[in-house]
Design a protein that fits this description.
Blueprint: H1 3-14, E1 19-22, E2 26-33, H2 36-45, E3 52-59, E4 81-87, H3 91-100, E5 107-110, E6 127-128, H4 139-158, E7 162-163, E8 167-171, H5 174-189, E9 196-199, H6 200-206, E10 216-220, E11 224-226, H7 228-241, E12 245-247, E13 252-258, E14 261-267, E15 270-279, H8 285-291, E16 302-309, E17 321-323, E18 342-345, E19 351-354, E20 358-359, H9 370-380, E21 392-400, E22 409-412, E23 419-423, H10 429-450, H11 476-485, E24 492-494, E25 499-500, H12 501-508, H13 517-524, H14 537-548
Parallel strand pairs: 2-3, 4-5, 4-15, 5-12, 8-17, 15-23
Antiparallel strand pairs: 1-2, 6-11, 7-11, 8-10, 9-10, 13-14, 14-15, 16-19, 16-20, 16-21, 18-19, 22-23, 24-25
Helix pairs in contact: 3-7, 3-10, 4-10, 12-13, 12-14
The structure holds flavin-adenine dinucleotide.
Length: 572
Amino acid sequence: MSFDKIVKYVKKRYGVDVTVREDERSVFLAGECDNWASIVAIGKLFVTEGKHVVNDIVLKGHDEKPEYLPQLQDNALDNTDWDVVVIGGGISGCSIARELTRNKLKVLLVEKHSDVARGASGANNGMVHAGIDLKHQCLKLKYGVAGNAIYGEVCKDLGVDFRRSGQYVIFDSRLIRFFAKGTVKRAERHGIPGVRILNKKQIAEAEPRVESFAVGALYAPSTGYVSPYQLTIAYAENAVQNGAIVSLNTAVLGLDVTDGKIVRVRTNRGRFTARCVVNCAGVFADKIAAMAGDRYFSIHPRRGTDLMLDPKAEGIPTQTISMGPTLKSLSRFGKGSTKGGGVIKTADGNYLLGPDAVEIPDREDSSTSIESMNNVFDKHSCVCPTLKKNDIIAFFSGVRAPTYEEDFIIERSAKVVNFVHVAGIQSPGITAAPAFSKDAAAIVVDYLRSTGIDVQPNERFDPVRPRPVKTKKLTMDEWDKLIKNDPDFGKIICRCEEISLGEIKQALRNPLGVKTIDGVKRRVRAGMGRCQGGFCMPLITKIIAEESACEITDVTKDDPGSNIAVGKIKEV
Ligand SMILES: Cc1cc2nc3c(=O)[nH]c(=O)nc-3n(C[C@H](O)[C@H](O)[C@H](O)COP(=O)(O)OP(=O)(O)OC[C@H]3O[C@@H](n4cnc5c(N)ncnc54)[C@H](O)[C@@H]3O)c2cc1C
């Protein structure tokens, strides 16, 4: 359909006067509308082969919430020079920084929060997707399948748990089972190994708890599970181990461009130069692009809520179970904006129910609403009919960063020569990162070489990041030996997750220098169990104060300002 016709349709359907402008890379939309979902829907109508949509239709009466920026102001980075500056400490930025350290390069990663994995990489399902839902050739498919294939190797190197235990997509009708044959053929074509259809008897053997309603299942054995924040942290730590610098509480505030080249990066911690800049800023990737006058795509934030279930809940499946399409929803199969979700058994053995997908106007709005929680429960609890709402022990939301084209952008800018975009990294970004990080790093290195820089391999690169001790995984004999060596490993601080003082101290001595309650939580799961930190948080606060030689009132939950205690009511 021509743009003129779409403009007329938009006026009729949404009552919006949209103006359209085009250049060689993008279609730019402007106008005003009083409904965010309509703005996103209008943006999608203008998606056209070979061009990106930049949607500047304004939501009437809405003031965008101010972006989180660190209060810290110093000159720690002033007048420094870097070969590569990576913006954003999510899985994209951390994995790319680590891949770059395979070369002798001065690499700086800047993250505006007080730890890595604070954006989408810290709030997602951790499913290493097989890729069965992706219908067409696209970067999500290319890197999703390639990333999945190397996950075991990467996690082994980085000392992170990874479980490849597959995913069952349940059918409750024989007709759907017939249609699923097409998915099996497509998976074969896309190089996704082992996808097959299980009959009622086979699925009942694998997961007896679905016998009452499943007539069969699509089984994807290559689906795996990882702790997304632990992997992100491990990538960052390995990058530091190999020479990169990670600067936390550091926000990029501006990019100075001269003659189509970034000549200076401006932050709250000083101004510095970079031969090449990599944009991995998640939901802010288009804003970072705009700082360099290179905004040719737009991100529309899409929130997903997950519910964490009590592992002791009655009838909870022991495997990851998603509900396949029903006859009613068949027409939407593979077209939705989530990968299905369901009951997911995480890498840590917990259970998540979700997620949903809600388009939102504010990029950092990771709030949870009762409406989303009810929707998630109603949508996914069908895979476990005995589940009750009081089996929910915690909940969280994360915000995805899709473009209107719903694909990743991993390329060097056509307008600003030393600028690489890694944007639109929505699901399956966790799955795909091990693969796209290698290509993104190669784009940077190729560019640097093209400018005459002799980029040499880093002979001291060590891909192995030492695996942190997890007492829970040790045999009694191993644990006993460890305690004899260091009695702190025998003092349990977090009772729910069985985390010892030794593990907490180990987490606090991390190479990124993070000493916060949530930093400990992300590293060793202390406070993530049934009581959600009710018992261990005061103890951990005290341990942090001791380790950091500061007052308890100085200890923060996460970002500066999130102090746990405001004063002492008695000596502790
Ligand atoms: C609910 C949900 C479920 C998901 N489930 C899965 C799944 O099961 N499997 C899967 O493969 N994928 C999943 N995803 C997708 C996955 O989480 C993302 O694709 C991935 O985490 C994106 O990583 P990123 O590094 O690109 O972005 P982010 O993790 O968002 O990182 C971007 C970082 O940039 C920083 N930043 C932004 N602006 C600046 C600035 N100006 N200066 C400095 N720093 C800045 C931010 O603070 C942030 O830390 C899910 C996503 C959600 C929300």
